[in-house]
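Handout, page 2. Input:
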Amino acid sequence: LGQEMACTGCQGQQFQADDLAGMPTRGRGPAILVYYGPALMQKPGKKDPRGALTVLAEVYRQTRELFPLQQDTANETITVRIDALKEIDCALVLRPDPGQSWVISKTSCKDAMAKLVSASEYKNINW
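Output:
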């Protein structure tokens, strides 16, 4: 989580506190902007901070699968919208009803979103 959040989307720019030295994210991109990430931490995270951080880490993990680290995208930023997650208890996100899963799906070459899908919808998802 720390490595992903330290990616700036500006090639050659690093934070003093964590310059990512020796990390696979250093000098690579795209950076990931989790739209409504703060709302996730403030709303369901107020009740369950560990659960909210787990959800946030999973959002980054799934987004990175869709947008792998590359040197030529160090100046780019991907926006992933988590509107659907910011009002839901973390336990319901981490353990949804049987036959359903929360996934990150591409909406364009620079954007993605979290959505709840049933198993029958998997084949139609833009991974």
